Amino acid sequence: MTHAYDDTNIFAKILRGEIPNDTVLETEHSLAFRDITPKAAVHVLVIPKGAYVTYDHFAREASNAQIADFTRAIAEVCRREGLEEGGYRLISNAGEAGLQEVPHMHVHILGGQALGPLLAG
Ligand code: 5GP
């Protein structure tokens, strides 16, 4: 998979403050905000502030500080959203097979309800 980053994507615009978002958490290297079309009672997207296309791109090329910040941001969102007790699901779609819609690396945090099977149909 190529990792050429297109900075016209919608999450790049959110990071530049060009379009609004419903922020849940902002850290030095990461931003968490509510998905505009929530698929569960809680649906938060966590993105790195750096220009990474997919999870593997981020995991390979981001600094240890960026990776630690991102991982801990996920934990903090789970805590703030009250998901630790009832559980949750993390999803990171990548590329064509993953049906990635926005080419800026992100992890979906889904919870607040029973989520059903991992893959539908
Ligand atoms: P993907 O399929 O790339 O993993 O998911 C992209 C997600 O971004 C989708 O769940 C979609 O609803 C969400 N999304 C797309 N545009 C916007 C936007 O402008 N603001 C927010 N908050 N979420 C968006």
How is this fold's topology laid out?
Elements: H1 10-15, E1 23-26, E2 30-34, E3 42-48, H2 55-61, H3 64-80, E4 88-91, E5 107-111
Antiparallel strand pairs: 1-2, 2-3, 3-5, 4-5
Bound molecules: guanosine-5'-monophosphate.
Describe this structure in words.
This protein is α+β, with helices and mostly antiparallel strands. Strand 1 (23-26) and strand 2 form a beta hairpin. The chain has a 5-stranded antiparallel sheet, with helices on one face. The chain is globular, with a radius of gyration of 14 Å. The protein contains 3 helices and 5 strands, in the order H-E-E-E-H-H-E-E. The longest helix is centred in the middle third of the chain and has 17 residues, at 64-80. It has helices at 10-15, 55-61, 64-80; strands at 23-26, 30-34, 42-48, 88-91, 107-111. It has a single domain (10-111), classed as HIT family, subunit A (2-Layer Sandwich). 24% of the residues are buried. Bound molecules: guanosine-5'-monophosphate. Guanosine-5'-monophosphate binds next to strand 2.
CATH fold-level name = HIT family, subunit A
Which structural category fits the helices and strands? alpha+beta
Stretches where pLDDT is under 50 for at least 5 consecutive residues are: none
What percentage of the residues does DSSP assign to strands (E)? 15-25%
Please provide the ordered H/E string of secondary-structure elements.
HEEEHHEE
Cα-to-Cα separation, first versus last residue: 26 Å
The best one-word shape is globular
Biggest sheet strand line-up: 1-2-3-5-4
Q: Compute the number of strand runs.
A: 5
Level of helix content? 10-25%
- CATH architecture descriptor name: 2-Layer Sandwich
| The CATH class | Alpha Beta
The CATH homologous superfamily is termed: HIT-like
Radius of gyration (CA) equals 14 Å
Motif (Histidine triad motif): 104-108
InterPro entries: Histidine_triad_CS (IPR019808), Histidine_triad_HIT (IPR001310), HIT-like (IPR011146), HIT-like_sf (IPR036265)
Organism: Tropicimonas omnivorans
Domain HIT: 10-121
